[in-house]
Amino acid sequence: MRLFRHTTDLPADARGAVLALGNFDGVHRGHQAVIGQAQRIARDLGAPTGVLSFEPHPRSLFRPGDPPFRLSPFRVKARHVEALGVDLMVVCHFDDRFLHKSAEDFVEEDLVRGLGIRHAVCGADFLFGHRRAGDVALLERLGARHGFGVTAVGPVADPQGGVYSSTRVRDALLAGNPREAAHVLGRAWEIEGRVEHGDKRGRTIGFPTANLELGEYLRPAFGVYAVRAGVDHGPATVWHDGVANLGRRPTVGGLAERLEVHLFDFAGDLYGQHLRVQLIEFVRPERKFSGLEELKAQIGLDADAARLALSRPAAARPTAE
Question: Distance (Å, rounded) from C-alpha 158 to C-alpha 212?
């Protein structure tokens, strides 16, 4: 997949694409339906398939005081989009200038002049332009004027009638229900990052951990999770079962929010390596213990519970992306 961080001066073979438009935070099953529709139309037209998204997420500009909320920071989102077989991804820089661009200017300057779009595909609730004045009806009128087609994809629901949405994923994670989040996403939700040096206290009690900062990720319910962690080995990712604590570590007076991951039956140095951690099942809420001995005993129980959770058939295996 080719990545463009602008809508101007694209090579000729990247213009004339069928573009799926949206934020695509999480790239859940509903997003996948929009992108899949774009791929089907592109095949019929003999055109490339693209995704057009916005970074940083517009919500960070509209509501800068909100707690972290991202399901998939940019690098992660791009990887999930690429895994769907998309030819190109275009990223519009969402700054104050872009915020004040009218819906008509966005279509004429970016979609038409810049990208030479053949067809746009979006969710039925897609809004764009200054003050979110553009909707699907306006996009259809502008498409008719400028010679590109528009397809709006309605809400996509599971067999029980629950609509796939980023909000539903966030609500599930905040409630400590990563299996529900995985159902909506079509894969386990994960946090990824570079392994940082911690206080190395885990080694002293027999449970060494790899520590990840949470950055702009949404904070799921604090507590202990059964996890699968992917360690990069060249182009391949090798997965290991494990148990993790997500939170502030109140027993040792911790203040910073972090993810501490203990990999089962693993020997090696992970400092500085890139780690992907999939939350599979919530084991228990985070709580304060009387001291390290009580904490050590509880971690042993948590590890046993995590191993059991990961052995169940319902525990999704990591995706190949």
Answer: 33
- 19 lies in the same domain as 88: yes
Residue 255's φ and ψ, nearest 5 degrees, are: -120, -40
Q: What are phi and psi of 270, to 5 degrees?
A: -105, 0
First to last CA, the chain: 13
Last residue of a domain, one of 102, 125, 153: 153
List Cα–Cα distances, 180 to 6, 170, 226, 279, in angstroms.
Answer: 36, 10, 15, 11
Whether residues 113 and 200 share a domain: the answer is no
Enclosing domain of residue 265: 166-311
Is residue 113 included in any domain, yes or no?
yes
Say how far apart CA 277 and CA 298 lie, in whole Å: 21
User: Which residue in the list 260, 281, 293, 294 is annotated as catalytic?
Assistant: 260
CATH number at residue 235: 2.40.30.30
The total of structural domains in the chain comes to 2
On whether both 176 and 126 belong to a single domain, the answer is no
Of 172, 259, 273, 184, nearest to 217 by C-alpha is 259
Residue 221, helix vs strand vs coil: coil
User: Quick one: 59 exposed, middle or buried, by C-beta within 10 A (0-12, 13-18, 19+)?
Assistant: middle
> Using one digit for the tens of pLDDT, what is the confidence trace for 36-67?
999 999 999 999 999 999 999 998 888 888 99
> What digits encode the pLDDT tens for the residues 104-126?
999 999 999 999 999 999 999 99
Quick check: is 260 catalytic? yes
The torsion of the CA quartet 249, 251, 253, 254, rounded to 10 degrees, works out to: -10
Please indicate, yes or no, whether residues 70 and 210 belong to a single structural domain of this protein: no
Same domain? For 144 and 179 the reply is no
Helices (H), 223-291: none
Which DSSP state fits 155?
A: -
Distance between CA 182 and CA 192 in Å, rounded? 16
